[in-house]
Amino acid sequence: MKIIRWSQLKTAKGPFYDVLRDDASPFHKDARHLGCGPKSFLNLISLLREQRKEVDSKNLQEIAEELISELKQNGELSVRIDDISDYVSRSPYFFDTLIFCLNFKATAPDVGQGILLRRIQQGQIGLLFLEVPDEGEEAKCQPNHLAVLHSDGTDIFLDGLRIDWETLINVAYFSPTNMVWLFGLHPRAMKEDE
Question: What is 3-193's CATH number, 1.20.1740, 1.25.40, 3.90.70, 3.90.25?
Answer without folding.
Answer: 3.90.70
